[in-house]
Amino acid sequence: MQKLSERHHEYWRKNLRITAILLSIWFVVTYVVAFMARDLNFTFFGWPFSFWMASQGALIVYVLIIWYYARYMNRLDQEHGVAEEE
């Protein structure tokens, strides 16, 4: 079995950390904000806030999460010398 160097451990620590942070954001947007939005009774861009959160807001956040993860991992791969050749 191959032993991992400290550099590999650092790479995976950073990878797991950003994954946990982004999954936490996903959870909050998907369950917490959408659930609490029912109690927020105000109009947002002409629609009830709960409708907007369920139909538009969450999708925007999901796309931003994917974009940020891809960008972060590309930089991390280059930093640790494991980037794919283009």
TrEMBL record:
Residues 9-82 form the Sodium symporter small subunit domain. It comes from the Bacteria. Coiled coil: none annotated. Keywords: Membrane, Transmembrane, Transmembrane helix. It holds the Pfam family DUF4212. The chain crosses the membrane at residues 20-37, 49-70. NCBIfam families: Na_symport_sm. This is DUF4212 domain-containing protein.
